[in-house]
């Protein structure tokens, strides 16, 4: 299953990389909200701060090291302690808000797509109008609302009730791929996760990243069914 997911991810990523070359932004903070320094690939940010914003990032894997200064007994000066070191996969044309929680864990708590400016609206010549309004691009729900919705869904005793509540609450809201994947993990059965993933696809703002929801499914058959579903022409 992992090999199939990796293959699908690489195919999607290669297509998206050529179609949308806009750079991304990575915002980083520690769960403890303490000052830290950052190494991002070959860039070194050595002035401690409680949050960092790294811009102009190309989509793909990047090496990230997050360190903070700590005072240890027997050392006259503060020592550098690494709190995270590893590779992060940055999606294209996105603002990624992340929280470093431990040495081997960094969570993308919110991913907002950077939309290209829409083409200017123009009234049709055969039906002139006095005013034409362009609809704004949708944005996913904020983190606080997402936590509230997650809690409401998780508090339901029965699987079918969880699914029904999730669909009702989110029917008029938009989500990011990471939020969909997190909500899928609230269900106990693969069939429910698959049904929710199909429902949420039309409400997702960064569908180019939807292959990441495959990791929340347990069976190859579910992955194949979801992959076939999102590949259909809209």
What's the SSE blueprint?
Elements: H1 2-19, E1 24-30, E2 36-40, E3 43-49, E4 51-57, E5 60-70, E6 79-90, E7 94-102, E8 105-113, H2 143-154, H3 159-169, H4 177-184, H5 190-201, H6 220-231
Parallel strand pairs: 1-7
Antiparallel strand pairs: 1-4, 2-3, 2-5, 5-6, 7-8
Written account of the structure:
The protein is α+β, with helices and mostly antiparallel strands and 234 residues long. The protein folds into 2 domains: 1-20 and 138-234, no CATH class; 21-115, Sandwich (Immunoglobulin-like). It has 6 helices and 8 strands; from the N terminus they run αββββββββααααα. The protein has helices spanning 2-19, 143-154, 159-169, 177-184, 190-201, 220-231, and strands at residues 24-30, 36-40, 43-49, 51-57, 60-70, 79-90, 94-102, 105-113. The protein has a 4-stranded mixed beta sheet. Strands 3-2-5-6 form a 4-stranded antiparallel beta sheet, with no helix packed on it. Helix 2 (143-154) runs antiparallel to helix 3 (159-169) and helix 5 runs parallel beside helix 6. The radius of gyration is 21 Å and the shape is elongated. The two termini are 26 Å apart.
Short structural description:
The chain has 6 helices and 8 strands, in the order H-E-E-E-E-E-E-E-E-H-H-H-H-H. The protein is α+β, with helices and mostly antiparallel strands.
């Amino acid at each position: 299953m992992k090999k199939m997911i990796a293959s699908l991810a690489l195919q999607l990523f290669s297509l998206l990389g050529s179609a949308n070359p806009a750079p991304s932004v990575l915002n980083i903070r520690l769960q403890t909200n303490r000052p830290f320094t950052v190494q991002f690939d070959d860039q070194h940010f050595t002035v401690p701060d409680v949050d960092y914003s790294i811009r102009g990032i190309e989509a793909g894997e990047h090496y990230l090291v997050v360190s903070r200064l700590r005072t240890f007994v027997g050392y006259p000066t503060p020592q550098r302690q690494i709190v995270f070191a590893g590779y992060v996969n940055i999606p294209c044309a996105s603002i990624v808000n992340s929280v470093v929680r431990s040495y081997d864990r960094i969570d993308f708590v919110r991913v907002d797509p950077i939309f290209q400016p829409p083409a200017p609206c123009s009234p049709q010549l055969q039906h002139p109008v006095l005013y034409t309004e362009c609809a704004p691009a949708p944005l996913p729900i904020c983190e606080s609302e997402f936590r509230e919705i997650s809690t409401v869904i998780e508090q339901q005793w029965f699987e079918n009730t969880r699914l029904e509540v999730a669909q009702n609450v989110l029917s008029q809201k938009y989500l990011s791929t990471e939020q969909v994947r997190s909500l899928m993990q609230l269900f106990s059965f693969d069939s429910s996760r698959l049904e929710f993933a199909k429902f949420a696809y039309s409400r997702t703002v960064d569908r180019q990243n939807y292959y990441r929801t495959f990791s929340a499914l347990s069976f190859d058959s579910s992955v194949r069914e979801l992959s076939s579903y999102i590949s259909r022409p809209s």
